[in-house]
């Protein structure tokens, strides 16, 4: 017998300002419960209590706790996307080392928007089945990076879209790993090696990042 699909779609979308405020309050309550108790111990009743709303108000918008968490993932993903939407115009005309350092900084800022919630949601995305939303965030970041790379004097045959995937996934993996290890941001040596590696892959004559800092000082 096939598994019953989770009810992760909201019952209705808030239209009026008061309704939107109620949904935001519910999502704030869900974030608090997920961080404090974890997904397995979270219930719609606990979420409603943490949000200070009646359980009926929660069920007016969400059929299950999975639907609440899916909406929370959507909200968090939108916040991550805005970080890179704001960055994209500032990449124009930047040399590789400078632009890559800016992308690393943006990735770090995105992970630090709400680090405890970020960790919990990353754990729950596969269970909720919202991988498409995370792929959308990655695709948006990669698209911004690809547009910048396309302005560089690349050797014939090099594809900006492929290079952008390499840059985005390398930075995401290193930043995520460093913050998961308890660092507030990338250690300087790791940051410099990452920036140098990616910048040199895009422009082989790029000096090492630590050499750039020494010359500037």
Automatic annotation (TrEMBL):
<dbReference type="InterPro" id="IPR023772">
    <property type="entry name" value="DNA-bd_HTH_TetR-type_CS"/>
</dbReference>
<protein>
    <submittedName>
        <fullName>Transcriptional regulatory protein</fullName>
    </submittedName>
</protein>
<dbReference type="Pfam" id="PF17918">
    <property type="entry name" value="TetR_C_15"/>
</dbReference>
<dbReference type="Pfam" id="PF00440">
    <property type="entry name" value="TetR_N"/>
</dbReference>
<keyword id="KW-0238">DNA-binding</keyword>
<dbReference type="InterPro" id="IPR050109">
    <property type="entry name" value="HTH-type_TetR-like_transc_reg"/>
</dbReference>
<dbReference type="GO" id="GO:0003700">
    <property type="term" value="F:DNA-binding transcription factor activity"/>
</dbReference>
<dbReference type="InterPro" id="IPR001647">
    <property type="entry name" value="HTH_TetR"/>
</dbReference>
<dbReference type="InterPro" id="IPR041669">
    <property type="entry name" value="TetR_C_15"/>
</dbReference>
<feature type="DNA-binding region" description="H-T-H motif">
    <location>
        <begin position="43"/>
        <end position="62"/>
    </location>
</feature>
<dbReference type="GO" id="GO:0000976">
    <property type="term" value="F:transcription cis-regulatory region binding"/>
</dbReference>
<feature type="domain" description="HTH tetR-type">
    <location>
        <begin position="20"/>
        <end position="80"/>
    </location>
</feature>
<dbReference type="InterPro" id="IPR009057">
    <property type="entry name" value="Homeodomain-like_sf"/>
</dbReference>
């Amino acid at each position: 017998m096939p598994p019953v699909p989770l009810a992760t779609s909201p019952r209705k979308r808030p239209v009026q300002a008061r309704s939107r405020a109620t949904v935001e309050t519910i999502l704030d309550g869900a974030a608090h419960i997920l961080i404090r108790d974890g997904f397995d111990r979270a219930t719609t009743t606990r979420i409603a209590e943490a949000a200070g709303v009646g359980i009926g108000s929660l069920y007016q918008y969400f059929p299950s706790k999975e639907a609440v968490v899916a909406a929370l993932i959507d909200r968090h993903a939108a916040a991550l996307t805005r970080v890179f939407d704001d960055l994209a115009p500032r990449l124009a005309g930047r040399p590789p080392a400078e632009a890559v350092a800016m992308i690393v900084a943006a990735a770090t800022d995105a992970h630090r928007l709400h680090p405890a919630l970020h960790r919990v949601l990353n754990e729950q995305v596969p269970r909720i089945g919202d991988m498409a939303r995370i792929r959308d965030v990655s695709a948006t970041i990669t698209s911004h990076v690809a547009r910048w790379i396309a302005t560089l004097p690349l050797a014939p045959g090099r594809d900006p879209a492929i290079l952008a995937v390499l840059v985005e996934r390398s930075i995401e993996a290193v930043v995520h790993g460093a913050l998961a290890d308890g660092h507030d941001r990338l250690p300087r040596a790791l940051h410099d090696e990452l920036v140098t590696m990616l910048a040199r892959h895009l422009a082989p004559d790029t000096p090492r990042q630590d050499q750039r800092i020494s010359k500037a000082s």
